[in-house]
Amino acid sequence: xxxxxxxxxxxxxxxxxxxxxxxxxxxxxxxxxxxxxxxxxxxxxxxxxxxxxxxxxxxxxxxxxxxxxxxxxxxxxxxxxxxxxxxxxxxxxxxxxxxxxxxxxxxxxxxxxxxxxxxxxxxxxxxxxxxxxxxxxxxxxxxxxxxxxxxxxxxxxxxxxxxxxxxxxxxxxxxxxxxxxxxxxxxxxxxxxxxxxxxxxxxxxxxxxxxxxxxxxxxxxxxxxxxxxxxxxxxxxxxxxxxxxxxxxxxxxxxxxxxxxxxxxxxxxxxxxxxxxxxxxxxxxxxxxxxxxxxxxxxxxxxxxxxxxxxxxxxxxxxxxxxxxxxxxxxxxxxxxxxxxxxxxxxxxxxxxxxxxxxxxxxxxxxxxxxxxxxxxxxxxxxxxxxxxxxxxxxxxxxxx
Amino acid sequence: xxxxxxxxxxxxxxxxxxxxxxxxxxxxxxxxxxxxxxxxxxxxxxxxxxxxxxxxxxxxxxxxxxxxxxxxxxxxxxxxxxxxxxxxxxxxxxxxxxxxxxxxxxxxxxxxxxxxxxxxxxxxxxxxxxxxxxxxxxxxxxxxxxxxxxxxxxxxxxxxxxxxxxxxxxxxxxxxxxxxxxxxxxxxxxxxxxxxxxxxxxxxxxxxxxxxxxxxxxxxxxxxxxxxxxxxxxxxxxxxxxxxxxxxxxxxxxxxxxxxxxxxxxxx
Lengths: 401, 268
Known about the structure:
heterodimer; B: alpha/beta; four-stranded antiparallel β-sheet; disordered N terminus
């Protein structure tokens, strides 16, 4: 069943949803990255909640003029207008009053959402009979998705992606160093607005699939996931797109593989799954890597300290140090160095002197920055460089094997 | 007063007409809330000189620089760069902000930061080509950071971060360089590297303006000074303006008399 879903063989609707969700995931991940880099992730939450009154008002207008209240383009246009108003309110509050951004987000989010819920309740008592489905915009509803709906999502998602690609450099510059960007003459405020506008577009496009409450997850979780794997912003963007797209595709397929599984929330859960895996297992930045790194580092510190103590004929008191030295065959149980231990200890002491010279020499700055008291010097310098340093130290030369 | 009137009419002062001054500020007032940080300040930067902006903490040094660059919007006043409005001259100005102004955990490498200095050449969609890379690497080389090109910026020491910022400014190949406290909290090696680069810029005929806090090094590093304490206190060559009286008037009681004596002795 799941395989059928993954290979898009569960029928027309499921295929439409899977394609739509994948595209939405990619564009949300990519767009959300810039929001994340600008440290304004929560703004998207306010924007998405501000879409609700627009959806309801658009429905009322459509019905009042005798149209189909469920016309997706009409509803999305309404949601975009009210989200934009919410965005401008938030911007005005942050820039022109003493309110901080978090307060402005809270104010806009709750007021717009509250107003939207009031309108939704009013609509439900209107008894038009055609209102069924508006609540679907809260958490997304893909059951009755049409070809036209999927097309709107695809076009909207693709257009957002293209726009993001065009202004990615200014957005990155503003996110990293807004003052420098302003000094270069970049219109920082307008670039921020453009970024928010793109986030709004993704939100509106995603209303049908994940709904306004959960879209924030698709905007934020993929970039946060991607950040675990790379230190380069362009790659964060790329990986966030991949993570978002995969989550959309897998989530849609999973929800189609069993009855009564909601699409939007499953997509978010899959996305969270990627995040959890990255959090735990990513190299360097992951939790596990950090723990292992720490333990390994601790072992190296103990061995190094032990070797230096041996070289200087001092007694080793710490049990862990002694145990590690013994296990490495560098010392006996009574703390006396073995032959191998003596050689390593002498080398450690000499390395310390070499490092001292490297660190005092401005020409070796990049190397000196690597000094941690542990590193074997031949891993960072060539034999010739080491020979030069040894000439400075003087004394007996190491015998070359 | 007479001098200011003369300045307003574009009459030449100290051998240079206002019109071609790399940076001319007139009647600049900037305020955060109700308290002006910079009040009615005039400044005329001499071309080809190294000018230090000095004054006590909170005297508006950085604000003056930011207003000159249009980063903060002034309540009043005008800024011209090489005789034209700032907006037309952006390409000729390079800015080195304070190190503390950015998040150093940002996912970017040293070389990427320097390439930001080439954003005008790259445009929105232009590919980063070999000539861009080699120019960025040259700039890193000039600040002694070539070997660090591929490191994540968070792995650098404070002084190294400052030098990367300077390399980014160098990549712009500007005519006017504005630096905000480049020597704050950096190691001696960095200070030496930065001052060497700044002096080479001066020799190449560029103009350098530095917000500076270390009074002891002013006479070694700079040829012009601008003293500010919300209002302008003094402006001119080091010999003219960096005097015991002007320091006393800029710093008030905040500067120990012994310190002032020491400086005036150093000045002879």
